[in-house]
Hints:
Oligomer: single chain
Strand content: 25-35%
CATH architecture of the largest domain: 3-Layer(aba) Sandwich
CATH class of the largest domain: Alpha Beta
Radius of gyration: 27 Å
Largest sheet: 8 strands, mixed
Helix content: 25-40%
Distance between the termini: 58 Å
Shape: globular
CATH topology of the largest domain: Aminopeptidase
Number of helices: 17
Amino acid sequence: xxxxxxxxxxxxxxxxxxxxxxxxxxxxxxxxxxxxxxxxxxxxxxxxxxxxxxxxxxxxxxxxxxxxxxxxxxxxxxxxxxxxxxxxxxxxxxxxxxxxxxxxxxxxxxxxxxxxxxxxxxxxxxxxxxxxxxxxxxxxxxxxxxxxxxxxxxxxxxxxxxxxxxxxxxxxxxxxxxxxxxxxxxxxxxxxxxxxxxxxxxxxxxxxxxxxxxxxxxxxxxxxxxxxxxxxxxxxxxxxxxxxxxxxxxxxxxxxxxxxxxxxxxxxxxxxxxxxxxxxxxxxxxxxxxxxxxxxxxxxxxxxxxxxxxxxxxxxxxxxxxxxxxxxxxxxxxxxxxxxxxxxxxxxxxxxxxxxxxxxxxxxxxxxxxxxxxxxxxxxxxxxxxxxxxxxxxxxxxxxxxxxxxxxxxxxxxxxxxxxxxxxxxxxxxxxxxxxxxxxxxxxxxxxxxxxxxxxxxxxxxxxxxxxxxxxxxxxxxxxxxxxxxxxxxxxxxxxxxxxxxxxxxxxxxxxxxxxxxxxxxxxxxxxxxxxxxxxxxxxxxxxxxxxxxxxxxxxxxxxxxxxxxxxxxxxxxxxx
Length: 577
């Protein structure tokens, strides 16, 4: 294990061309690959092992630079369909989504070099095709500095969290605003991996572990994969990492301010990488090495995790294939889907935690304040609460199909890039469908990743005939993209397209009235429609402000009249029963 550190830090040489001159790069102990350097490293591997690996361009970033995918396949076939026909599993590794968190960037180069150069890994490559994105957030990687992540223990320079649009790419998997994400999704959908790993650094609290781990939250994972992960894959993964001298702990996300408050399992909704991969039945992992540990150790821990995962995929290949097949079949036929979750605080376990004693010291600013600190001279091991269970807060019965009007082309584009199977209406057609009306919702006050997220969405259902047009899209819910469809098209889902503002046009009323000309119509409606009159009078009795509000009364009647547009607040996606 220590040998590789010497190799990667002091002896890994490769050639790059800069302004027509060949330059050799030699890495000191605390330096990470730049975007150009890591690309040249993989080009060098492709040159040395052309029959076993391929470096492919899968798209461009928002800043116009190529995003690459490095594929290792022992038979020289780099086609996903061919790999599946041979029964091979697929491991997909994503690096540099947060460009200031680079351990995976460096670890993956060494991982690839070892697999290609050492015969002891030959058997593993018989079973698994490996896909690696060398540096996903290319834009952030070009924005290198020493200091954007305060107190990070190396490397000397690293990239920035935001991409060319200043977006956090690990919040973009559903909304897909960036070219980076479009490239990622296209490659991911081609390969549909069995295991997905996203490499990161973490900060916040301090503790003894180098590596912490986010796993696809097991309560929201498909039941067959969750059962397999809990009983087999995860215990073996934790055990193997301990044997490699990198004992892990679940991602340290305290319920309060200190370890004593307990760890809460991270709920990765589909905006996040593993929340996205869960939609398509993969085992997803986010490695989170602690940024306060030396950079070489973080690289070493990430490499250990990659090797451990690959070896376990090989030894568990049959069980993993079985669990994943059951999961994909289940996604295709399942009737009830969970689309929002909440922590089950009544269900608490315990976990052994290796931390440091916390103390409160006087603030050095001379203020009447206490500052929490971790005393590394006082390590401890003790049991703390572990909140790892979630319960569904919103469930939905899937329809037999969704009908998506083609006018909402931004949504259709995202369905297509995610390989959702769509057909199109051949002519204008009146179809009886279930429609939602948005009765109420809340919206964040400040922008979040370029959007104003909606939440706490309240709906009213209505069955009605709707005229859909030639070319409108039909998505039948008998496919492996079912979970993606339900979680994006049901407007009350946590990361639905409605939540991310793709349907905000329906929330604005387009036609109005002039009070002076509508009042006679309103009076006539009250006179001739007993139902409207009864509801109106009851409203006046129950609401004193309304009883004095001339405009409010006219608008109330207007909304009950045939002049009011029935598309206002009507969610445009139809649900076919």
